[in-house]
Amino acid sequence: MPLANSTPREGGSNYIPRRLIKIALPYMSEEIKQNILSILDSKQFVQGKFVARFEQSLSAYLHSKHVIAVNSGTAALHVAFESLKMAKAEKGQEDGNTTSKVSPEVITTPLSFAATANSAIHAGCRPVFVDVEGETFNIDPSLIEERINENTLAIEPVDAYGLVANLERILEISRRRKVPVVEDAAESIGASYRGSKVGTISTMTCFSTYATKNLHTGEGGFISTEDDALAEYSRLIRNQGQLSRYNHVSLGYNYRMLEFCAAIGLDQVNKIDELNSRRRKNASFLRTSLEDLGCFSFQKVNDPEEHSWYMFSALLDEKTAGITRDKLVLLLKERGIEADVAWPLPIHLQPYYRKKFGFKEGDFPIAEAIAKCVFQVPVHPYLLAEDLEIIVETIKEILKDRAQ
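and the corresponding structure tokens:
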């Protein structure tokens, strides 16, 4: 089918997109608009009834004992690590142990957004990276245990693009070595692992509700945990360490969620599964349509029903395709398809991490190889059937043009 007319544009492209197919579209509704107006009228803008209802709704959806809303996914991770430090310090006092002067360590993956490791550093911890599995893009459990020592505060797996990490093996290590798991589930709201919703499996699970996420609040995040003490510490830390107003019993931060953000998210909680189902169908169409081209490979997904499909990612074999990943993404954007490259550099190769920790190319070769050839195309639930067909046909046309 014709994809666009041939009227030249400035810059030499012969394509004018019939529409812009965006990488993400935030959910919006009349109920959200009315709720925001009611908040304006109430003049209660921070940590009020909408935040409480949002937490309760998420707790019911996840079947989680505690949900603590904060103002970003990064804050959620930071609060989790600080909570674990408080719990460890309290246990040390009970046991009569002195606090170690060595920085705590967090074992995590380099294939993620920098906030995964930044949050550990904010909590005074040192990120300890291990490489990922080439098939799943998630942390390789077989490499975790050798990095555990007496200073290890937590294991921090990341659910890359919405595919849950191998929690069975990670939690087995966690139980045996008595190291808690802080799951970076920024991209996996609504995902599950062997029948259990993400949010009820790890010691603490941290979500992002940034504007592009499957459940969004514009900006925000939350923590889910079954542990009463960790939940109490988390609530203290997000609110300047206040047990009650002006009664500061610990160090804390202003990580409270705005009422406006909670109002945006509240209307979406009961729609997560429906919207993720649409994402799943879109991902299935894209994968089936692209895998026969012979130049793409994809995350290994044992059960597509358990993936949240925050992103549809593909690895490009540049030699077979006759085009670089970056050029393909550029040409897709020129044709009105908002393709993207999430994490073009692994965290350890970001300038800050190279300078501070001395990381270099070759340290984590699988993560580096994936980062060089992975890209994403739109998979969000508001795509039309025609949009999906345009994405596939445009990719085919670009590859055909390069082969000629």
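(Above: one complete record from the training split.) The chain has 13 helices and 16 strands.
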